[in-house]
């Protein structure tokens, strides 16, 4: 039997010379079939390439030369068409016995029995076929097939650098990835957008396939494996901060692949056959892809995505192309594709070009989704198999209102989408027209509708939406977008700018809420070991009170920025009243110091707390006298009430905000502070959704702080709601909970012609 590795290597060395030669593309191909045929000891060696949608015989050793550029097959036709169509290898002892065999007399192939063919793959598509034939009826050995596959890989470089591949065509072969496809998911941020697909972690393009120095290539791969293992271990250690939102299960799988010696060995073998490190990784990946295609198991397909991720990571490490798509910059309107993202990663993208996001994971209250909502970027989440269907550069129509996206749309689909887009813009315009209208219910109750913000860039939305103020300014966003801890002066500048652009409208600054899924690489607490439950761990006020310097600097920045104005300060994740006292004491001390310095002080300071830890609800009698306002953070509150991690995609749809437990809880909080001079608002994502807002009005909530895009829709909703009616209905449901509160509310709204979508 032939020593496949050695012969592949000899062939590769010869191919390298051919590629480097100055001869014309056709002459090169003619030499190539001779080299491969000779190297593999094969009677026939032929290359078919895709031209104008057909696979055309471009060069052959052994078949009739008259057939060159004459014999053509369509995709799926004959053995060659089948190989290209399915991107699969065929290894047949008797070619004519295969059901797809199609006889081409002009080739003179009658005397040959055995046949082996492999696809020539470019950008994951077959752009041609390389095949060998023998008179002797025998199946080829696995090692021979592998040698063929390795050679096909190098051929793909040759034919693409020789301009023999039509890039457009190269994109359009595999049925699953060529025609239009619709993907369904969970609407995380509603809205419509169109643009080209951009992968957050771009694929590496392989520049060279043939190695000049095999040992050097081997060392590169070994080094990359070491680095990748380090990265994965680090990610696993940081999982308590939920860095990129990767979850334990995924990390476990990543780890399994990263430490898979079999994978490493296969790559090593491919390097032995003469490939560069990048080509070897891709070669092994192609092989795995081909094998996986034959297995129809969704679980395995998922694992395949994980392996693709890892191979991509390894490839990026080897080639040094480590940046995300953000670092390369977006060149046109883009829809970002990722498994998951962290909020800071999203913020790195150019807001003008980033039109939408599609994630394989994601949940409604994950911070990346909150950031996207604040940026006005629609997000579709929980799209299974996303990265198997969409390719970099594909046209995408994202319709998060319908919880779906269309890739490679036909003109008819595009037309329908554009019509919906236009209608949605009309709706937006109608909401925008409510800008100067005071939010009042049908029965004249004034509801305070404020907006949530976190960055300077969010401020223009205050004027555009006509919101009553900023009910939640997430100061940690400035920390998230910085590479280092923002200096006090920078904080002061931001707060001052925010207050200035808000004018007479109030702004509630929440002190930093770091931790959970808002990780700061420069602020770790390694010395305390890893956290099992980061959302319930070292985060928000707990961090701020321990790192007193952090809170001190922020207190000073806020107090100075609000000189001569009213300062509203709110503390996140207060679990017991003493934490509020401790945080306020930091402000008091700073205030005293500023007084001593004769600096301009705020005219008034109003303190408040977030109510997001259920325990605090039991202590409101103690807390209420100390505070001016309370803001119910339903994002965290729900995760703690239901013991359901807000960032866990598996739980994204499990519990409903419109549930008796949450609504009863909120009603009780309102009752407990009634008449105590405490303003109570809801500032979680729940308040920005129409049906949920209706439920909140029903339990007595009269202050909302919501995402800017929801201000118009909520104002419009209010005009249709009679508070007396919804209060009565809600009291009935809460006293006697129906099987589905949501269904009751939907029916109730529909009867009154209230659109709650
Ligand atoms: C909340 O928990 O509801 C909230 C508004 O805060 P964040 O989403 O920033 O945790
Ligand atoms: Mg919170």
Secondary structure layout:
Blueprint: H1 4-20, H2 25-39, E1 44-51, E2 54-61, E3 72-74, H3 78-86, E4 90-92, E5 114-122, E6 125-134, H4 142-161, H5 167-171, H6 175-178, E7 181-184, E8 186-189, E9 192-199, H7 214-238, H8 248-258, H9 261-272, H10 277-293, H11 298-319, H12 325-328, E10 334-338, H13 343-347, E11 354-359, H14 367-375, E12 379-381, H15 386-389, E13 395-399, E14 404-407, H16 411-432, E15 448-453, H17 460-465, E16 470-474, H18 476-480, H19 488-502, E17 507-510, H20 541-546, H21 548-561, E18 566-571, H22 577-596, E19 604-611, H23 614-617, H24 620-623, E20 629-632, H25 634-641, H26 660-673, E21 679-682, H27 690-699, E22 703-706, H28 708-720, H29 723-735, H30 741-751
Parallel strand pairs: 9-10, 10-11, 11-12, 15-16, 15-22, 16-17, 17-18, 18-19, 19-20, 20-21
Antiparallel strand pairs: 1-2, 1-6, 2-3, 4-5, 5-6, 7-14, 8-12, 9-13, 13-14
The site of magnesium ion (MG) has 5 residues, from helix 25.
Structural class: alpha/beta
What's the average pLDDT? 88
Main sheet: strand order: 7-14-13-9-10-11-12-8
Distance between the termini: 68 Å
Précis, in short:
With 757 residues, the protein is an alpha/beta fold.
What attributes does this structure have?
elongated; eight-stranded parallel beta sheet; alpha/beta; 757 residues; binds phosphoenolpyruvate; binds magnesium ion
Can you offer a commentary on this structure?
This protein is an alpha/beta fold and 757 residues long. Helix content is 45%, strand content 16%. The chain is built from 30 helices and 22 strands. The chain has an eight-stranded mixed β-sheet. The protein is elongated and about 100 Å long. The site of phosphoenolpyruvate (PEP) has 11 residues, from strand 16 and helix 25.
């Amino acid at each position: 039997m032939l020593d496949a590795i050695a012969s592949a290597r000899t062939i590769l060395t010869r191919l390298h010379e051919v590629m480097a030669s100055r001869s014309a593309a056709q002459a090169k191909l003619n030499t190539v079939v001779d080299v491969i045929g000779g190297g593999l000891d094969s009677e026939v060696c032929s290359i078919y390439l895709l031209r104008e949608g057909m696979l055309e015989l471009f060069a052959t050793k052994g078949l009739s030369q008259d057939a060159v550029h004459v014999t053509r097959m369509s995709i799926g036709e004959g053995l060659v068409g089948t190989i290209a169509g399915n991107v699969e290898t065929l290894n047949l002892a008797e070619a004519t016995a295969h059901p797809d065999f199609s006889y081409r007399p002009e080739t003179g192939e009658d005397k040959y029995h055995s046949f082996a063919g492999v696809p020539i793959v470019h950008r994951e598509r077959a752009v041609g076929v390389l095949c060998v034939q023998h008179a002797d009826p025998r199946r080829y050995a696995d090692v021979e097939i592998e040698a063929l596959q390795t050679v096909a890989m190098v051929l793909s470089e040759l034919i693409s650098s020789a301009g023999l591949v039509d890039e457009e065509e190269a994109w359009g072969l595999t049925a699953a990835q060529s025609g239009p496809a619709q993907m369904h998911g969970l609407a995380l941020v509603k809205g419509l957008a169109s643009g080209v697909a951009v992968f957050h972690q771009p694929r590496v393009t392989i520049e060279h396939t043939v190695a000049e120095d095999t040992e050097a290539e081997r060392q590169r791969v070994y080094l990359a494996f070491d680095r990748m293992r380090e990265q994965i271990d680090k990610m696993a250690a940081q999982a308590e901060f939920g860095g990129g939102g990767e979850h334990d299960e995924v990390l476990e799988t990543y780890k399994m692949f990263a430490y898979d010696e079999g994978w490493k060995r296969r790559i090593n073998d491919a390097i032995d056959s003469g490939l560069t490190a990048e080509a070897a990784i891709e070669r092994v990946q192609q092989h795995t892809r081909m094998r996986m295609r034959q297995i129809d198991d969704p679980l395995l397909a998922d694992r395949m995505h994980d392996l693709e991720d890892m191979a991509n990571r390894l490839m990026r490490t080897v080639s040094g192309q480590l940046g995300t798509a953000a670092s390369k910059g977006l060149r046109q309107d883009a829809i970002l594709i990722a498994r998951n993202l962290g909020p800071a990663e999203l913020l790195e993208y150019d807001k003008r070009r980033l039109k939408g996001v599609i994630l394989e994971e994601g949940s409604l209250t994950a911070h990346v989704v909150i950031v996207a909502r604040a940026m006005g970027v629609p997000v579709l989440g929980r799209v299974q198999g996303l990265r198997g269907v969409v390719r970099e550069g594909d046209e995408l129509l994202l319709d998060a209102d319908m919880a779906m996206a269309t890739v490679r749309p036909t003109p008819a689909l595009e037309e329908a989408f554009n019509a919906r887009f236009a209608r949605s813009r009309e709706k937006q315009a109608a909401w925008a027209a409510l800008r100067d209208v005071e939010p009042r219910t049908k029965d004249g109750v004034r509801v305070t509708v404020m907006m949530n913000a976190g960055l300077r860039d969010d401020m223009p939305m205050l004027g555009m939406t006509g919101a009553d103020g900023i009910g939640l300014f997430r100061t940690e966003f400035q920390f998230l977008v910085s590479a280092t801890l923002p200096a006090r002066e920078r904080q002061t500048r931001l707060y001052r700018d925010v207050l200035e652009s808000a004018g007479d409208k109030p702004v509630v600054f929440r002190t930093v809420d770091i931790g959970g899924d808002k990780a700061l690489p420069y602020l770790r607490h390694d010395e305390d070991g890893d956290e099992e439950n980061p959302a319930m761990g070292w985060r928000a006020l707990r961090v701020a009170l321990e790192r007193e310097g952090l809170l001190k600097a922020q207190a000073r920045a806020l107090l100075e920025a609000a000189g001569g104005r009213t300062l509203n300060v709110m503390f996140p994740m207060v679990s017991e009243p003493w934490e509020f006292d401790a945080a306020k004491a930091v402000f008091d001390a700073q205030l005293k110091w500023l007084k001593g310095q004769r600096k301009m002080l705020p005219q008034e300071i109003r303190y408040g707390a977030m109510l997001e830890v259920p325990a605090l609800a039991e202590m409101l009698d103690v807390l209420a006298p100390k505070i001016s306002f309370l803001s119910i953070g339903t994002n965290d509150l729900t995760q703690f009430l239901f013991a359901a991690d807000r960032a866990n995609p598996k739980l994204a749809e499990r519990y409903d905000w419109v549930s008796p437990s949450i609504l009863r809880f909120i009603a009780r909080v309102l009752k407990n502070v009634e008449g105590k001079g405490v303003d109570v608002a809801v500032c979680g994502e729940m308040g920005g959704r129409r049906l949920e807002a209706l439920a909140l009005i029903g339990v007595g909530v009269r202050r909302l702080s919501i995402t800017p895009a929801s201000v118009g829709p909520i104002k419009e909703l209010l005009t249709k709601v009679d508070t007396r009616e919804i209060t009565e209905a809600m009291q009935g449901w809460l006293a006697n909970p129906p099987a589905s509160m949501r269904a009751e509310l939907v029916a109730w709204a529909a009867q009154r012609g209230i659109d709650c979508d």
